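Hi,

Apologies if this is the wrong queue. I'm a grad student, and the batch job for Arc-like DNA binding domain-containing protein from Pseudomonas fluorescens produced an output file that my downstream script rejects. I'm not sure whether the problem is my script or the file. Here is the sequence I used:
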Amino acid sequence: MPNNLEAFIVRLPSELHAKIKNTAKVDRRSMNNEIVGRLEDSFAARRSVPADAKLNAILFEHISTLENQIECLQQELAACR
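Support response: The file is valid. Your script probably expects a header line. Output copied below for reference.
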């Protein structure tokens, strides 16, 4: 076991405690390992936010272009009537 472990007491709502306990049991791991794994996953997910922001910017640009095209087509259609 690593020497650099810190003990940490946390208070959980009963329902959350039960979810963690059941999931850990199904996955055949300790509650501690379940909690640590989920915490590590949450930090890893946050690292991908800049990539998500870049993708969002590209998507918003495409949406804006499409909205402009729709507006032009609606004007052309109105002119034909």
